[in-house]
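Structure in, sequence out. Go:
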């Protein structure tokens, strides 16, 4: 996480909800006996070179919830926690992987304690023919937390092809991104990354930049794989996207780069988690918290990411960036 490129809702609101219960002013003492509750977040991806699980604490207390959230020890466990993954195939445990406590990835400042955060990491290779059981144990309290997931398998991107030049000026037709849904995958999201270079007119110094165009996620009908999936994109919307994301700056020249098309697919449990936690639109605002963590809260699932990278655009599309009504003032050469 995932940095995860998939649009992932963190567990922050789960912890905030618990903290708010503790901080409500009522005539009833809501601060009862403390009970350990682990907050777990993990999305396995066998194509990653490193895998991370985040395990933190939900907490209650007499102080202001926002003050307690800044206390590092209130959020994270110390050396008492053991986090492991069991690789299971045909009912047999083939391997047990112990994850190492890791504090190397900083956390941005905000409601919760920063810049340090605790993750649990392994660089072991994962296998998509197996199920993975997550085991978390606390040597001080004896508390045990568990979850399990299958892995989203590899899939085929039908369009674009790696040899294709992208044309955003199709007449009376949308550009369509097409792929086959993977086994164990349910929720798909397309991201198009546009690379460009800026050159300062005074200093001639250059800076490579990019912007990401993220599309609404789609659900396949099932997790059996092989379902035809697509996102239809009106060509002119590419140019309006550029104009909305890149500021006019008369001090720079800009140069058109390549495009990457990335499709990320998440497992069924994560899909359910996202569906349940969509904002309420009706009168009933209270919604249940979805979790697939035994003796804890959070989400443990999987995802798979696949890309077609380094695609050029046809000459007419590049000319539309340089001279078209939406982008002519952006300084592309």
């Amino acid at each position: 996480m995932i940095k995860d490129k998939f649009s992932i809702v963190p567990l922050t609101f789960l912890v905030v909800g618990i903290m708010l219960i503790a901080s409500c002013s009522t005539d009833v003492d809501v601060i009862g006996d403390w009970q350990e509750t682990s907050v777990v977040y993990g999305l396995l991806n066998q194509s990653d070179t490193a895998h991370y699980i985040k395990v933190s604490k939900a907490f209650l207390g007499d102080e202001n919830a926002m003050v307690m959230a800044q206390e590092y020890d209130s959020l994270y466990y110390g050396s008492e926690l053991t986090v492991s993954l069991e690789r299971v195939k045909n009912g047999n445990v083939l391997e047990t992987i112990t994850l190492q406590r890791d504090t190397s990835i900083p956390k941005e400042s905000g409601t919760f304690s920063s810049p340090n955060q605790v993750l649990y990491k392994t660089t072991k290779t994962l296998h998509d023919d197996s199920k993975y059981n997550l085991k978390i144990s606390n040597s001080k309290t004896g508390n045990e937390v568990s979850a399990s997931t299958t892995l989203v398998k590899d899939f085929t991107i039908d369009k674009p092809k790696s040899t294709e030049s992208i044309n955003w000026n199709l007449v009376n037709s949308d550009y369509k991104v097409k792929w086959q849904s993977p086994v164990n995958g349910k929720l798909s999201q397309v991201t198009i990354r546009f690379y460009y270079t800026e050159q300062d007119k005074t200093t001639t110094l250059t800076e490579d930049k990019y912007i990401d165009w993220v599309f609404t996620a789609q659900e396949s009908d099932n997790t059996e794989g092989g379902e035809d999936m697509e996102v239809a994109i009106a060509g002119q919307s590419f140019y309006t996207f550029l104009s909305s994301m890149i500021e006019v700056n008369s001090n720079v020249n800009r140069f058109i780069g390549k495009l990457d098309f990335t499709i990320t697919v998440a497992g069924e449990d994560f899909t359910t988690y996202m569906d349940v936690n969509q904002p309420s639109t009706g009168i009933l605002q209270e919604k249940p918290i979805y979790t697939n963590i035994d003796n804890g809260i959070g989400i443990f699932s999987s995802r798979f990411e696949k890309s077609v990278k380094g695609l050029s655009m046809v000459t007419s599309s590049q000319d539309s960036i340089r001279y078209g009504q939406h982008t002519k003032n952006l300084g592309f050469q």
